[in-house]
Amino acid sequence: MKVRVFVGLKPGVLDPAGEAVKGGLHHLGYPDVASVRCGKFFDLDVADGPDAEARVAKMADQLLANPVIESFRVEVLP
Amino acid sequence: MNVGVVTFPGSNCDADFRRAIDRVEGLRAVALWHKDTDLSGVDAVVLPGGFSYGDYLRCGAIARFSPMMQSVARFAAQGRPVLGVCNGFQILCEAHLLPGVLMQNRDLSFLCKDVTILVERTDTPWTRGLANKLVLPIAHGDGNWQADDETVKRIEGDGQVVFRYQSNPNGARNDVAGLCNAARNVVGLMPHPERAVDPLLGGTDGLGFLTSLVEVLA
Predict the structure, then answer these.
(1) So where are chain B's domains?
(2) Which chain A residue shows the shortest CA-CA distance from B102?
(3) Which of A11, B28, B117, B129 ranks highest by number of CB atoms within 10 Å?
(4) Average pLDDT for residues B129-144, to the nearest whole number?
(5) Strands B186-189 and A70-76
(6) Distance (Å, rounded) from C-alpha A18 to C-alpha A39?
């Protein structure tokens, strides 16, 4: 099964890259952009099973995200 | 006394560090390889700077799982001296041997210059006898130390901040340039002591880290 893990900075954690992108959008003529947060996603192909989603969440917690500053969301892809 | 310097794929300050160690009377550098688990009986371990595993995922995130790091974690848990510099500091944070995380510099730029740091603790094996202020070079894109409020409060209360920038170059919380663990045997910092061991190259403020070790291990 295919699973997608979204990883992003927790609210309140300064995102220097997001701030830079926001500045770029302002320069491009979109002054209404109030905030940009950058993140990333991982597409995993894992063995089917009732615990697959929980296992992927554990992988995200152990490696894909750093829980000190990041949170994650697991989504099963069709 | 033997000091191990771990080489990961992408480490680039390992040779400099071994040379710095060998300049100090009483110390001998031992090269350690990331795939090995044997610490070769060293008395202290250094994780050098560089770009281990290409900084993939997050700086230091992959190096943490290398076989050698499992041995280093056990060594640290025994209270033996461990020092992480730059990428080594990032690895120690990812491995949870030190608190917090090193994020991208506030202004997004790679910083390569001398900085002045204030020494707040001289009761670690790496900082005994250091002056109050040191001038050391930094060279990093991800040196912006961050942690949640609770962690910051805890480590400030516990006195785990070892070094602070006199003038904050990267946005690090509370001007943190380097930290130690609660037991004080594990120290990490962004500036490079191994690049300041020869007056010809701009200063010798980095030598104190190693002479401190000689005193502690004697």
Answers:
(1) 2-217
(2) A69
(3) B117
(4) 97
(5) unpaired
(6) 9
